[in-house]
Amino acid sequence: MSDNEGRSKAPSEQPPEDLKRERDLFIQQFFRKGAQLTEEVLKENERLRDRLSELESENGKLRAHLASDTAMRDLVRKIEALEGEKNALLQRSVAMEAVSDRYTSRHQEVESELASLANLYVATSQLHSSTNVRHVLRNIKELLAQLLGAARFGVYIASDDKKELVAVATEGQSFADIATLPVDGGPIGRAFSTGKLYYDAENDVSKGTVERPAAVVPLLIDGQPIGVIAIFGTLSQKTAFDDQDGELFRLLGAQAALALVSARLFTDAGRKVPGVQAFLDLED
């Protein structure tokens, strides 16, 4: 009996077919859902990886952009610094140009003053280098031509009655036209009568005439006129007189008169130097 019972109970150890199918179906659904879940996890992981890659790329771009902005800011600061240096250098350059201009201007002034002094020295030396009237007149003519550019002129001494001016030396002008000149009119007469220098500051002095001379220099001794130097016209390239010419005119007015009178008196004295007594008598 026990054998029969054992044989009769053996089939009850196997699950029923319905349960088996349900179990298998559950297992299949479990694994299918697990597979789906796994696949979804893998897809999400892939999507996250792609997103991470995108973020890394964007982060790289942002870093590059930030680096570029930093470099740009550094470049802008460098440019601003260079602009500041450039402006400073420009200001220094302008200041140096101003100093250079002042130096050049002063240098030109000094050169002009030295040239004027040289002319005055040469003129004085030449005027008093001879005790011969003829040589003095020749020196006056050379000074007028070389230092003043005179082309047509005459040196005049007043007549004894002071009514006319008599030419003692001429150059470049017909002597007959200028041998004597009246003292009662025109620029020449006024310069002699007043003892004041005259020169044309408005017109081309190379085109002067006897009636409208370029310049008239009164010859003075102790402030009194004894004659004039009349410049009727200058060389074509000498169209105007300047301040240096004015200084030379004044020197000629004083020194030429002295040189002429001294030479004349020395000649009249037989070209003999007075004895010492003549100088001692001056103290009385």
Automatic annotation (TrEMBL):
Residues 38-92 form a coiled coil. Transmembrane segments: none annotated. Residues 132-270 form the GAF domain. Keywords: Coiled coil. The keyword Phosphoprotein does not apply. Residues 1-21 are annotated as: Disordered. Pfam families: GAF_2. This is GAF domain-containing protein.
